[in-house]
Amino acid sequence: MRKFNLRSIFNRLILGVMLLSGPSFANTDWSDVLAEARGDTVYFYAWGGSDEVNRYLRWADSELHRRYDIRLKHVKVADIAEAVKRLQVEAQAGRKKGGAIDLLWINGENFHTLKREQLLLPEVLTAVPNSALLLNNTLPLMRDFGVDVDNLEVPWGIGQFNLIARDKSFPTEQLSAEQLLAFAQKNPGQLSYPKPPDFIGTTFLKSLLVDLTEKDPRLYQAVSDQSAAQLLPRLWQYLDRLHPLMLGQAQSFAQSSAQQLQWLADGRVSVAFSFNPQELTAKIKARRLPQNLQQHVFADGAITNSHYLAVPRNASHPAAAQVAINFFISPEAQERKADPAHWGDPAVVALEDAGALLPSAEELHASWQSAIEQGWLERYQL
Amino acid sequence: MTSTARLYTPAAVISVLGLIALPVGLVLVAFAQELSQLTATQLRNFAAAPGLSQATLYSLLLAALAPLFACYLALAVSAGAVQRTPVWLSPLLSMPHLAFAVGLVFLFSPGGWLVRAMHGVSGAFAIPPDWAFLPERSLPTLFTVLLLKEVPFLVLMIHSACSQLPVERYRQVGQSLGYSRTTVWWQVVVPELLRRLTLPMAAVIVYSVSVVDIPLLVGPNVPGILAQEVFSWQQDFAPDAATHALLGSVLLLSLTLCLLGLNRLHHPFYRWALVRVWRRGLTAPGILRQLGRGGMGVARLWLPLMVAMTLAMLTALVLWSMASGWFYPQWLPDSLSVALWRREWGYIWPIVWTTLLIAIPCACVALVAALVCLEVQNKQRWPQWLVLLALLVPQLPLVVGWQYSASAYHLTPHVGWVFWAHCVFAFPYAYLVVAGDYQRYDRHWLLVGQSLGYSPLKCWFTLMLPMLRRPVLYGWVIAFSVSVAQYLPTQMLGAGRVVTVTTEAVSVSSGGDRQLLSFYALWQFILPLIALLLVAAYLALVSRRRNA
Amino acid sequence: MLELQHVAIVRAGQTLLEVPELSVAAGKVGMIMGPSGSGKSTLLLWLLGQAPEAFDITGSLRLNGEPMTHQSVSERRIGMMFQSALLFPHMTVEQNLFFALPKQSAYRTKAARTERVGSLLAAVELSDKAKTMPGTLSGGERARIALLRALINEPKALLLDEPFAALDLHRREEVRQWTFAQIAQWQIPALLVSHDLDDRPAHTQQCGPLLTIANGVAQCSTHA
Fold it and tell me: What is the ipTM of this complex?
């Protein structure tokens, strides 16, 4: 016991010297990181609302424990923005090390904020050996909602916006905004969507906007007053027609896509959304959704983005966090993650029998996100 | 006498400092600092925040009407039965709001059990009706949850206040003058009661203003009630969000002050209205009287209804936690499996353990502090609102303020903080539950004990405590269940690392996975219930032994 | 011997009651009579050692020649009987009496305590009630157990605040005589507060001084 502690202290000293002498993690030997990580606990702040994800993380914990003597503690948050906020508060309080969070599951706006405020540990991507396996050539993994990853975060999985609808709701797999409206007119009270700024709700609005503007190229550039004034009204006009036909006349919305899925099972709505192309298969298998459902995508393709793992600059256990990341993008962990029996989230490394992705559509420029959200709140939350 | 004072006064001062002055003081300092740096633009931005006026209106409606309705329902329920000990009250009382809300939605939402059963019987509702009963998310649903859940607490408080009033004598006199029991109750007893209910009502109002976890689950969301909006600003990292959260907290506080002011006017207004009725010699018009009689009838049904509902909720939670494939309109799941229970069993224990590790000592601290304050109040007339201050300040700004000060003084999130915060909130409830019997206790017993040569402290322990065993133990159970049900302080001060069954239930509820949510809500329900059953069993044992 | 001197009860600057002097010998019963609110009960509470807070009380108290004014209730060892018996409801009759046994080595063993309490209960013909809870006793029984509880403690004096007022008329005389017999037997000075002149001992040789309060002044007389 005592010997073990001494060794760990020794390793810390070595690492400390290395850090002080200048080179970043990229230059440290991976086996040193492994040694440093041994015996540590990684506090992983991640959304805790999905049973499948929670179970997957428990499996990862047992594997990390078995292989590297690391404990992975899943700190379940209802919204990862809580964690971003906590990092900001810690930074304001001048907390440069010993922070509460070791590892984060983020993307989009959360990442942009942390990157802008320099709260993430640099060069994490280059530090983990398995990053060599990432499918950088075939997938747009290095831009997170239009912002360069800059080695600050490591891709973990792929999200593709898709719709899950009761059989015979729509004639084809491909779907347009007009068809959705026609469905609502025929079946009033059968639609709802996650309330923006829930990011699946916002993505639904983005998909509508793409469809309604016939994929206007200005959507892929930074939003300007002029482009917003010309494009957004088409979305608002559409929503003005849709909302009275929605569940409870759109007096309240689903809080999340997960709630929307539960409402689908309860027969309350006929359509739900998902960012996981395998969710339908996985949920039917787990008997959380009934059999009579179909997957649909918008005609312009499924808006596709990635989600990432990152380490805060003030993490208490950065080495262990990197070992965890390295494990998470190993083919074995990715394969289990992609398996609909476990989670069904598409892999970011090459797998032998990787499921096909949905026809994908490009993300809008990141600045549209807040333009849509702001506009929506101002119009519909009075 | 002096030796007791020497002992109690410092203990009481510590209680008051640690559980009342410090928590409230910290918040005042933090707010003053933040507010002093405010600019006019920030104020304007806040005023223009989408949905602000609607959210404020929701909060105002909710916190003004739900407690008021609950109050009159509780008065009607108590009208027949103030003499009987409300044994059945405690299970309803100790049931956490969250589990109650989850259960209520399972039963009464349009896709819920009742509609499914109706479909099964009559074939109606092939598609769940949008209008039926309680929509999954709406102000009426939230209103119903708060209304029904506050009634048991108010009934307990009415009961406690009644034993300080000669209710039976009022009744005899009234009936000898030819008035019905009901008339005597509403015109003689209730005016007196309302005055004594001012503080408990204030507690209920403040809770309704500041509750966050329940509206997150069942409340409206475009916008939510004010507390919910403040909470989401608090969690948000956008540049404006922090000032919005701060100003929102201030707004929440002002709203509370307004409502508390109205609350003080409640019993004078009732009296005034009564006097006007008397002076004009008015009797209520026929329709009103019919309505009143109907209302009293409903009140009589309240107890069996609540018990039936609680049992149905319990059943629904158990079924859902074991359900595999349960879709509308099936009214029972395809099959039941204990897979989830088996799988979660190993993971729930550490969580249950943490919950108990906080709640048990917290209930003890809260109870001791309550007893010490009551003992000192026997000698020195501290005003009651001072003791209950933590209950009269909305929880959200309080916790937000603590978080500000925690980061300002570079304090690490720690389970100790969470424990302290739980004590702050559990203490006033323990106090409220014990206070009635404690203040009514005939202290001549103690004098007899002392005249027999025992010290005041010894008398307190060997005479007073055993005689007050029942209220003291119930006070403990209530403090325990308050601690178990704490969401905000646990989540915000514990940095998400202090995981209790309640925080787990809330974070799971964000995913809408009903099996998992039921499992955790069930545990949140079970823990206080076990504590309560243990206490009830112990009390039964004691009284059996005594009668044997 | 119980002796009072220069006792004055003042409330909000007004003198409520003055007792220049009073002494009761062992085995005798002094009596205080006066209208409600004249300060009788307050005087008793002050003698017991716990005057109500609202009052300002000066004067001196001696028991068997020992000054008691600055002793606490538990140090004074004065027995007290209130109007209601105030038996501890969570203890059996026997336990109530155990509780009152003085903490002397003689009663350290359970056998000794049981023996002592048993013989006392036998002497007052209440042996069969030893294991019952006070709630089931009759008013007269309760009063007797309460007096026994006070006496078994071997107090230096006994104070009685209208102890018979709550009893039925036909019971009252019986309990009264029994009480005075006990006081004579235990040889303790007693002070009795009452409205009722019938409450004084039947045997005039047991009568101590009679204090009659009128307009805040106590008139002391000896019974004829």
Answer: 0.90
